[in-house]
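Budget justification aside, the reviewers requested a transparent look at the raw inputs and outputs of the sequence design task funded under Objective 1. We therefore reproduce one unedited record. The lines immediately below are the structure tokens for a 668-residue chain.
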């Protein structure tokens, strides 16, 4: 039966949704209903969100009947022996759940019914079972407990698995693609959480999927992890076609980051939410069943298995596999960009999901972060971050991935070893059209200057930029002429009265850029001679600021006062600059008086022979400012994850944009 025939057959079958009491239909009806080997596209075309909503308003019992039957087929299919297994029927049940469940999750009353009736648990448990069912998700028979890690059950080589299954992957890959898509659909309740309250939202589905009491959780983590990182193909890059394996790798990465993002509720939150209470009772019942059959009495452990597995990765060989995979993927993206000078989420294979996974690794696994910074090809990871920021900082729709790249650099900047990497010479090998770049740190300074001065869409990232510069400034041995001018230009930008008066927090940026100057002057004098020259030659700009007087703003954006302004100026860390002008400037002026034709290089040569030892005060104590997640950043990351998943599942469009609250979706 061709596609058009199967679609017509299915459309004819589902007309019964509106005409019959489906709760009274026997199994024979349902087998006939979904026995044809449809594709997800067939079901997507035949069942529209409008149809499901219409059915919910007229015959809600029919919708629940369909979902209950699908649950039974999935759950029993995940447990039965090979002889009782009807692969096509189970797949079509999975496809129907994928299509219908996101619409049901819009409705609070229906959601409660799914949990009260046990349907939600049956779907979660069944889908996890299918991923590791013989002759469906895997191709071996395993006798190990589904709560232990079985290397033979892990889909691909990598962490915990070094021997690939000696069978064809094609069928099981396709089955897993369908199952993973269904898991994403079930987890999509986050999309309907309002952004203003999302920080307190706990998704009951993701909580259950990532719980210790759900079978195959650990098998799932390592399988998803290895599949996402291990995928490779010839010609991987911009205009490559997507194979089943590539689609599986992309979906594996999506499910993985969704479950890593899953939050575990506090007891008071469980008590005040009927869906969370239902999940808790399910977990407690499963746990008590284990305890009854064991001599060891334990308490129910509330936690995220996926996060715990991620934190526990520590073996050097495992780190090598992970880092080499990221280097390979990210390096290939850079190679593509050198050719095409563009970066689009639809053309480059799931790089955004991989970057989010990379973030989770460095944020939750300290040993991994240290290992990746010391890796001999670490620069390829930094290359991608810099290129993403540079090529997308003016594109509003790319603000999320740009901010993530900046946050990753911030995370690295708190490690001394990162300064060594950023001090390495730059080979002009990236598609970044900035002249005069000598070192990696120069790229950072120039990119940050461009964004701070010229991009109002990313003003919230200025504080992040400045912390990165502060962390690196005392440790980088040398910065170039162009970067020195850009650093001074930041001072000029921050010291403008218009900028200071615009927002109360803007004064902090002036303190920070002066601290960057101080770090360079005290700790890296020999590598900062161009900056010293810029400070000396542009003394008039600093004098202008020092002589700045308070003037009441005509339309104050905040409660600014003369007292605040005076206190602000009196506390500026400009002691080193004053010492520089007091001691060094007269010597340079004397040099210039002897040679009216003196050029910049001669002054730089003079500075090389100059020391400020005994003139500058004792160097201040250095502090590395570390990244700490806040509710706002956690909230933002959830929004980025689901925005990525929404855009990656647009053909066909699994999620109906008209009901999404987590972020704004354009109808175009």
């Amino acid at each position: 039966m061709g596609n058009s025939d199967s679609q017509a057959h299915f459309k004819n079958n589902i007309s019964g949704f509106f005409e019959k009491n489906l709760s009274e239909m026997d199994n024979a009806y349902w087998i006939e209903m979904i026995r044809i080997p449809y594709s997800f596209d067939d079901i997507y075309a035949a069942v529209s969100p409008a149809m499901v909503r219409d059915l919910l308003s007229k015959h809600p019992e029919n919708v629940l009947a369909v979902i209950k039957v699908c649950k039974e087929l999935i759950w029993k299919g995940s447990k039965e022996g090979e002889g009782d297994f009807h692969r096509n029927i189970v797949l079509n049940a999975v496809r129907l759940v994928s299509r219908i469940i996101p619409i049901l999750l819009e409705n609070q009353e229906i959601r409660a019914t799914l949990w009260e009736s046990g349907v939600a648990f049956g779907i979660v448990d069944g889908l996890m079972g299918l991923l590791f069912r013989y002759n469906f998700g895997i191709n071996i028979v395993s006798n190990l407990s589904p709560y232990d890690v079985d290397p033979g059950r892990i889909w691909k080589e990598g962490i915990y698995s070094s021997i690939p299954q000696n069978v064809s992957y094609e069928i099981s890959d396709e089955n897993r693609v369908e199952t993973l898509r269904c898991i994403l659909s079930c987890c999509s309740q986050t999309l309907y959480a309002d952004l203003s309250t999302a920080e307190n939202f706990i998704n009951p589905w993701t909580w259950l999927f990532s719980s210790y009491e759900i079978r195959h959780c650990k098998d799932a983590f390592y399988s998803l992890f290895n599949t996402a990182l291990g995928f490779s193909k010839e010609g991987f890059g911009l205009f490559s076609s997507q194979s089943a394996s590539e689609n599986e790798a992309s979906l594996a990465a999506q499910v993985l980051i969704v479950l890593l993002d899953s939050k575990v509720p506090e007891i008071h939150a469980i008590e005040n939410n009927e869906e969370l209470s239902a999940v808790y009772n399910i977990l407690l019942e499963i746990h008590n069943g284990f305890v009854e059959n064991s001599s060891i009495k334990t308490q129910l452990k509330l936690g995220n298995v996926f996060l715990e597995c991620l934190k526990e990765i520590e073996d050097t060989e495992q780190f090598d596999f992970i880092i080499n995979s990221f280097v390979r993927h990210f390096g290939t993206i850079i190679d593509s960009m050198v050719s095409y000078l563009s970066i689009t989420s639809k053309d480059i294979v799931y790089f955004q999901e991989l970057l989010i996974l990379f973030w989770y690794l460095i944020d939750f696994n300290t040993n991994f972060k240290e290992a990746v910074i010391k890796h001999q090809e670490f620069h390829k990871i930094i290359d991608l971050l810099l290129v993403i920021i540079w090529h997308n900082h003016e594109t509003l729709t790319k603000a999320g991935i740009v901010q993530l790249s900046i946050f990753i650099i911030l995370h690295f900047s708190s490690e001394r070893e990162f300064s060594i990497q950023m001090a390495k010479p730059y080979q002009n090998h990236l598609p970044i059209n900035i002249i005069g770049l000598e070192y990696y740190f120069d790229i950072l300074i120039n990119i940050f200057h461009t964004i701070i001065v010229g991009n109002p869409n990313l003003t919230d990232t200025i504080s992040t930029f400045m912390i990165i510069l502060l962390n690196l400034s005392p440790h980088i041995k040398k910065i170039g002429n162009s970067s020195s001018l850009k650093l001074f230009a930041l001072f000029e930008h921050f010291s403008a009265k218009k900028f200071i008066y615009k927002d109360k927090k803007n004064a902090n940026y002036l303190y920070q850029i002066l601290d960057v100057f101080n770090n360079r002057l005290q700790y890296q004098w020999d590598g900062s001679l161009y900056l010293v020259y810029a400070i000396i030659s542009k003394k008039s700009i600093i004098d202008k600021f020092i002589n700045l007087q308070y003037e009441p703003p005509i339309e104050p954006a905040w409660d600014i006062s003369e007292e605040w302004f005076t206190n602000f100026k009196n506390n500026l860390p400009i002691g080193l600059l004053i010492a520089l002008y007091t001691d060094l400037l007269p010597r340079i002026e004397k040099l210039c008086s002897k040679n009216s034709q003196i050029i910049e290089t001669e002054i730089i040569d003079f500075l090389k022979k100059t020391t400020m030892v005994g003139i500058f005060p004792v160097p201040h104590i250095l502090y590395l400012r570390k990244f700490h997640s806040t509710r706002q950043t956690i909230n933002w990351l959830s929004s980025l994850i689901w925005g990525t998943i929404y855009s990656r599942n647009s053909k066909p469009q699994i999620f109906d944009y008209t009901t999404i609250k987590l972020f704004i979706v354009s109808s175009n």
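The mean pLDDT is 87. The CA atoms of residues 299 and 492 lie 60 Å apart. Computational costs for records of this kind are itemized in the attached budget.
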